[in-house]
Design goal:
Layout: H1 8-17, H2 24-51, H3 59-63, H4 66-69, H5 73-86, E1 91-93, H6 97-106, H7 110-115, E2 119-121, H8 124-127, H9 132-138
Parallel strand pairs: 1-2
Length: 155
Amino acid sequence: MEYNFLTSSSMVLYAKYIQVEFHWHLSCQFSITLDLYLQIKQVVASLVTESLQCNSPDWCLKHACPVCSYNVKFPLAIVAKLLDVFGDGLGGGYDIGCQFQTTLDNSSLGPLTRSLCHMCLVGAFHGHAHRQLCQLFSLTTYIKGLGIKDLETCE
């Protein structure tokens, strides 16, 4: 069996640094023990995964919390309520506003958001990470009538 030891010179230097006499056999024993520990840890983790059936293809789907993992569920409901209360000409800032606009267009709210001229905007801080086309249509800097709002206040 082959072990990955530190070079003897670095171990000797470390031993001198911490003012302990260096013993080669202790270094070998430690390396063997560490390798054994890591192997046991890997075997135990695979046994636990197998016994809990975490390795099945549907495990994540069966054991995930839909509310925690489905990021677009609540924003759709929020937009529906805002459109109901405030009506047309409404815009909302979202870190991924350009993607959310596509989600809105493809959802059952799509016709309503288009008829009420709803705009999904990207805040000034996050906007510069987006593509140029996204910036032109969604970045707060280029939206007429928005003023100096950067849409990052609530964050």
